[in-house]
Each structure stands twice: as structure tokens, then as C-alpha cells.
Specification:
- By secondary structure, the protein is an alpha+beta fold.
- 26% of the residues lie in helices and 36% in strands.
- The chain has six helices and 17 strands.
- Strands 3, 4, 5, 6, 7, 8, 9, 10 and 11 form a nine-stranded mixed beta sheet that branches. Strands 13-12-17-16-15-14 form a six-stranded mixed beta sheet.
- The N terminus is likely disordered.
Amino acid sequence: MVKRAATADGAGGRPVANGLDFARPNEPVRAMRRFFLASLMLLAACATAPAEPIVTAAPVIAAERAFAARAGEIGWIPAFREYTAPDGQIGGPNGIVSAPESLAQTPDDGSRTLYWQPAYAGIARSGDFGFTTGPFSVDEARTPRGQYFTVWRRQADGSWKWIWDGGPGGVAGAGPYLAPDETPGELPLAERGVGATEAAAQVAEIERRAGESGRLSASLAADAHVYRSGRPRTYGGADAAAALVFPAADVSYRLVRIEASEAGDLVFTLGEARWQAEGAERQGQFARIWQLRPEGWRIVYDQLAGGQ
């Protein structure tokens, strides 16, 4: 028979047997209970925490389509006035100008044949900044004539307005338009950002150095879209690299505007370009989209309009 000795624990006189306090669990048991409680709390938090929203280019694609549809309803001049941001800009013979001011002075000709459609789009991780590009036409038959490029920013009221509208214009082999059951291609979402201020500063420095040398090939993404007025559109590879140095390898660039997403992963740059061709100085306007990638800032869209 096992002999059990009863004792009392200190001042309270609580009975214990063989040194074990049955009224209070020992330390291993308490530790196990704490572990299970923490696990249950973690599982509950995972079950109730809202899933991180999936960011896609759908909002800018929808905005572009609505913009194009509106042009068919009320005419392209009123539609452009309606969808431009207060700081929107366009390019033309007189260079880069204020879109609201220029459009206010442009008479409405009643034309409703201008048509365009997004074929490729991109958006920032923060979901507040993006772009689309695709073919456009000016006739009722909707024959693709050139390429447009629009940069969009979400406004304080949640609406989308464009801050830049001006593609390379006529390009060789424009189009075709997507079929009704096709969806535009999308730029892969960046993995991270550095904040708007830092992103603008970093890209501005790259642009400054490029403006001095006219060389941007090292910054061209492998999947970049590159457009030059009157030339075939190019997408990635050697063709895009060759298009980047057309019409001259020593093009000088002057940055006049830079806009970054809130996340600091997508940056739009706009400016003037000058180069020599056939013994004369030519000038045009460049527009680019930069994306922050694991290897650094890369050009994912580049266009040069005018001068040919």
C-alpha cells in the first residue's frame, strides 16, 4: 500500500499530497493551456481579418472605355473636357500644354467618329494611378490608324481623370481592335514601392542622367512597349531596344513633368526631346512609364512623338 502523507501549504493551510498541489495546476499544464489559448486567438484573427484586396488594372480599363463611349455619344471635344483632370496636359504643335485651357478654346466640331480601345494597361499597387494604350481610328469604319496613350489618376472624389492624353500618333501596323470576348493585356503588378516622394526623386535622377547622355537602353524592361511616330509598334526584345534609339542614338531629353503613384512603384515622366536628323534639328515630346522591379527602375512604356 502506498502511504500518502497529507500536509498543509504555508499560511493558507491548503491540503497537499506528496508535495503536489491539486487545487492549482502545475507549471507544464499552465504553459500548455496558454499555448492552446494563443493558438485559438490566432486562428480566430485569421478567420475574421479581411483579405487584402486584389489590385488589377480593371478601374483604368473601365475609365478608358467609358471615356471612349462618351466621345461617341457627345463628341470627342466635350468628352475630353469631361474626363480631363484640372492638371491634365496634351501635346501638339505648340508643345506640351494645359488640356483644360486648350480644350476650352477648341470649338466643338460635332465629330463622333473618333474611336479608341484599350489593348494594354497597368496600375500601381496603391490602385490610384495607371495607364492604358491601344489603337484609335477617326473614320466610321473604325480602321485602326494609330496608337493612343492615356495616364490616369484617381481623384479625391473617387473618380478617374486623365492627366496626360497623347500617344505617338500614326504608327505602322496599328491595331487590331480586341474582339468582344478578349480582355486587354496587363502589366504585372510591382512587388513593392518606395513611396511617391522617393520614387519621383529616384526616377528624376535617372532621367537627368539620360538627358545628358541620350542613353536609356540599360533601363529598358524586357517586356517594354516602345513606340515611335510612323514606325511599327514594338514589344520587348531586340525590336524594342532598337526602337528606343530611333531616330537617333544621341537624343537629348528635358524632363518637364513627373508623377508617381502613392505606393511609389509606378512613375510617369513627360518632357521634350531634341535630336539631329538630315542636318537639321528636330524636336518632339517623350512620355514614359517606369515601374519599380526587383532589379531597379525599368521603363515599361516609352514613346516619342513628332519630329519625323
